[in-house]
Amino acid sequence: MHQIFDAALEINLLHANQEGADHNREHFDRWGITCLNVMSSPGAGKTALLERTLAALRQELKLR
What end-to-end distance do the CA atoms of the chain give, in Å? Predict the structure, then answer.
C-alpha cells in the first residue's frame, strides 16, 4: 500500500500549529504563566508526575 504525501498540506498544518503556539505564548507571557508540555507514551507516568508535583508544591503555590 502506498501513501500519498502532500508537502504543502503539511507545511500549512505546521504553520497553523506555530501560529496557535505563538498566540498562546503571548497570553501566557502577559499573565506571567509558565507552561510545560509533558509528552511521552501512554502509561509512562505523566499524570502521576503531575499529581506528585502539585501535591509537593500545593502550599508554595497556594493551590486549593
Answer: 53
Contacts of 46 (CB under 8 A, 6+ apart): 38, 39, 40
| CA 38, chain centre distance (Å) | 6
Give the cell for residue 25: 505564548
Grid cell digits, residue 26: 503571548
- Residue type for position 27: H
Q: How far apart are CA 50 and CA 46, in angstroms?
A: 6
**For the segment 11-62, what is each residue's pLDDT rounded down to a tens digit?**
888 999 999 999 999 999 999 998 989 999 999 999 999 999 989 988 888 7
CB of 13 closer than 8 Å to CB of 5: no
